[in-house]
Design goal:
With 351 residues, this protein is α/β, with parallel strands linked by helices. Helices cover 46% and strands 15% of the residues. The structure holds adenosine-5'-diphosphate.
Length: 351
Amino acid sequence: MAIISSSLDESNSPRSRKELKLVNSNFNIEVKNDKNVNLARPTSLQEFVGQEQIKSVLRIAIDASLFRREPLEHILFYGQPGLGKTTLALLLAFEMNAKCRVTSAPSLERPRDIVGLLLGLKEGDILFIDEIHRLNKLAQELLYSAMEDFRLDLTMGANKGARSRTINLPKFTLIGATTKLASISPPLRDRFGICQKIEHYTSHELQQIILNFSKLISINIENEACEALAKISRGTPRIALRLLRRVRDYAQVVKKTNRISIEIVKKSLNFQKIDSRGLDNLDRDFLSFLNLNNNPTGLDSIAARLGEDSSMLEFVVEPYLIQIGFIIRTPRGRVLTSLGREYINSKNEQN
Ligand code: ADP
């Protein structure tokens, strides 16, 4: 039960809810329903490329809820950034014809933030909380009863003057997204009826995503160019789309064309210092530091040396370097493999 230090009206009517002073309704929540402002986001589950197993689980959950006229079960998505967790939440809202309120855990620091958010929900709404592992303990505790019994248990005041209040909430669906499943407390994790891991995409799926987006932005991309972009996109749609946008800029501004060939891809990537393995300056600095150190190195030392955030290195840079066999994680730190050493030495020789 959360302790909120403010007074609350005795009744639980909608009017008294409006008068609550303890809640904060000013923080940033994006409400999304029918307007797809990000062109790259698919507009239906069918258009969402890949993740076939997850899509079938979600399709059954959606149809069952629609059939029973009930809100969807609470859903937890976990996986690396840029794999489509937010997109799936918005698609679920679209399929359920529901409003989706989008927020992220760091903006729900005070209990009144989450209380305000929950009290603002309507029957059937979807609440999407990104980086849900970063919710503090109080906010998580408030969510337990909200998720399980659609009820807010609050304690106002302190010591002898403390009073408990229970407020009923409309039935809503919480969709949580996280890159760190292990950091979510088990009681919170257990309250999600559906928990799905979003996997990296195959090259073929990424080509489909690139192709679909090219059509949307009226770009004509040749097969070989599409394949080359997919190959260096680290299994991640966000990276594939970002690369495509940069290549489009180069094609339109430097080459004055809307047709992307393999030559344009190569020249544009070269211009951005991205090599044929898809590695950029940051990846190379990471590898060079390990090469110089020649010992297992802690992530924090690498982050300090490169002036980068350690979680960005952990979730964005490292997974790909591990995947292509250039580094390994050991209990004593990160180690460069012989393949990684060979690569970085050959790059140094070229410079
Ligand atoms: P996350 O929330 O996991 O960080 P997003 O949902 O924000 O990732 O996705 C990043 C970008 O990639 C968005 O522009 C989204 O439209 C696109 N995207 C992600 N997954 C897919 C997919 N399966 N099909 C098409 N586009 C996708």
